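Homework help thread (please don't just give me the answer)

Our assignment gives two proteins as sequence + structure token strings and asks us to describe the second one. The first is just a warm-up. Here they are:
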Amino acid sequence: MEIEQSAAAIPVWQPIIAKYPPAFVGECEKAIAWSNEMTKEWLSSGMFAGDKSAGKKIAVILEELGDHALTKSHARHLPMIKCREMGLKISALEDNQELQDAVLSVHHACMLTLSQTQAVKIIENQQGTAFIKMAAQMVMAAPRVPNQYAEDEGRALGTD
């Protein structure tokens, strides 16, 4: 956009854009299209199954969620009221104390595991079968740097 508005911005953006391979933008566009297809399919078969106006509702939701100006980041929290405004049918976790306790227990266990171990990814099914990916651990010897103070300390102690 900035380049379209002013050709003077080209020298600023050229080295930034040059870092990406030519197919990168195409791969990003494919990933966005794929995520929209999956979301549309899931909403159609799940949340809006049997709803006669599902297509319109889903189109609004996809437009809202796909608007980077709104979300600004993949990991951004969207408030419950905003999700409801865009048409998502959601229930407050706080409305079901037993479910909330279970969800928070899993969340806290995962956060503790990820922060206190070499685990970087945890996948577990309802049958208790888990896959835990561990970070590769590398041990490297630090280069030995001569310490001028060690010599001075040795002289001061009379060990030199």
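The one we have to describe:
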Amino acid sequence: MQIALAPMEGLVDDVLRDVLTRVGGIDWCVTEFIRISHNLLPARVFHGFAPELRHGARTRAGTPMRVQLLGSDPACLADNAAIACRLGAPVIDLNFGCPAKTVNRSRGGAVLLKEPELLHRILREVRRTVPGAIPVTAKMRLGYEHTDLALDCARALADGGAAQIVVHARTKVDGYRPPAHWAWIARVAQAVPVPVFANGEVWSVEDWRRCRAESGVEDLMLGRGLVARPDLARQIAAARRGETIEPMDWAALVPLVQEFWAQVRAKLPDRQAPGRLKQWLCWLRQSYAEADVLFAAVRTETDCVRLDAVVAALSQRH
């Protein structure tokens, strides 16, 4: 079984990838999508989204990182994928799942699930252009408005050369509303000859067990559930081995929150940094009462120096 950390635009950047992969249980992670239009992107853009490329395409914990591209022009995607490979990307991942309206309006992400033939052309062109030793993978949803083309899309991706397919078990119109339709992942897995990863609505070990039972697949990609509970991958990996481990408590999480804040402070201007801290706390408060208390304390704070003091004081309380 492999467990992957999902790419989540505006949330799972290199800082959060670094912090979450330190906890353990994650086999590989993916960058936020890099939007491809009609131009060849310079190296600085790839390094901006994926600074790990300068360090063997791995996080500091040693977790491999893949580069994700989003677009609809087969040739331009292929040429940019080749650039990413020259910069050190070990795997190219293609995004056909993003539900954001702005992305879909510009003919990217989930809207392409209306066009299985285009999916095939994109995969075929990227696979033809990227060095043979570098896998090309894809992430999809079950469709745009409906699931009528789900199997056609999956076959198009596999026939085009996708080495793996991650299936977020909802349509674009479903957004992130529960439930995730895990039984559809089983249908996709039966329709294609490549490994399929289940994605969507796994927040606990119990969710994973139900997802595995309904989808019939072992491989898993975790997104929001892992951001909200950073040891979820480790918990699931242990359960898969028939083991039980103690969940990470708030005291163990505090050093990671402090490290996250230190990296955010170094990366972002003062006007943006507080929002990133509050963003992660918003997710953590779903799993930790202490995060809820901390979020309430900093919710209106915009001064980074005062936030420095608040975050530093966390270790004194635990």
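TA reply:
I won't write it for you, but here's a hint about the kind of observation we're looking for: The CA atoms of residues 169 and 184 lie 7 Å apart.
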